[in-house]
Amino acid sequence: MEAQEAQERALLERKVRKAFQVLVLQRGRNPGVKGWEMKRYLGRDYRKIVEVLSEEVSGFGLEVFEVKAPDGSEDASRFLLRFRESPTVTEAETSGIRIDDLAVLAATIAFVNSKQGRVARREVEQFLREKFPKWRVEYSLDRYVKRGYLEQDERTMLHVGWRTRAEVDEKTLMTLILARTQEAAKK
User: Fold this and answer.
1) How far apart, in whole angstroms, are the C-alpha atoms of residue 46 and residue 17?
2) Can you say whether the dihedral through the CA atoms of 58, 67, 109, 132 is positive or negative?
3) What is the distance between the alpha carbons of residues 121 and 39, in angstroms, rounded to a whole number?
4) pLDDT in tens, 162-181
5) Helices 121-128 and 134-147 sit at what angle, rounded to 10 degrees?
């Protein structure tokens, strides 16, 4: 009986290591792994393995996060490693993303959310041009659509993408922006 339990524990540990490797190694442009890939690499009980892995990486300030597919399909969901707490500005600066690019993304997310999650790209561009040069606005929006932070349909409407839902704490972002707005209004 003990030998069987030890064997099962060893198998679980191997699968947890495999899950970590699969999540860390990036394939293609987008981070993370789709549900069907996790099932292929780890077996049908991949969700149990993901839960165990998430508990183990929590000591490093990480978590395994699932981005649900819009259609609700488990196989189309995406799993990725992310920080449990939002990184500070200093950490964001060392990530290789320019601070003005982060500002464009934050302003875009806030604007889209203020319009009930869907807005014409032309409207977003007009809003952003008040603070940023035209070339930066167009370049940044195209790049964020390509990377999955924004989604665009029929080249006209923008909405928040899967990667924003995974990597950005939208509620905290909106709270911080509202707090800054209220401070500025008091002055």
Assistant:
1) 12
2) positive
3) 37
4) 888 887 777 877 887 777 77
5) 130
Residue type, 39: K
pLDDT (0 to 100) of residue 96: 60
| Mean of per-residue pLDDT scores for the chain | 81
Q: Are 82 and 62 in contact (CB under 8 A)?
A: yes
**Fold agreement between 2-83 and 89-186:** no
SS3 25: coil
For 73-130, the pLDDT digits (tens) are 777 788 888 877 765 544 544 456 677 788 888 889 888 988 888 899 999 999 999 9
Q: Class of 89-186 per CATH? A: mainly alpha
Domain boundaries, the chain: 2-83, 89-186
The pTM of the full predicted model, rounded to 2 decimals, is: 0.60
Retrieve residue 30's tokens: 């987008």
pLDDT digits (tens, 9 = 90+) for 39-55: 888 888 888 888 888 88
Q: Hey, what CATH topology would domain 2-83 get? A: Aspartate Aminotransferase, domain 1 (3.90.1150)
User: 41-79 in b/e burial notation, b at 16+ Cβ within 10 A?
Assistant: ebeeebeebbebbbebbeeeebbbbbbeeeeeeeeebbb
Would you say 136 and 108 are in contact if contact means Cβ atoms under 8 Å apart?
Answer: no
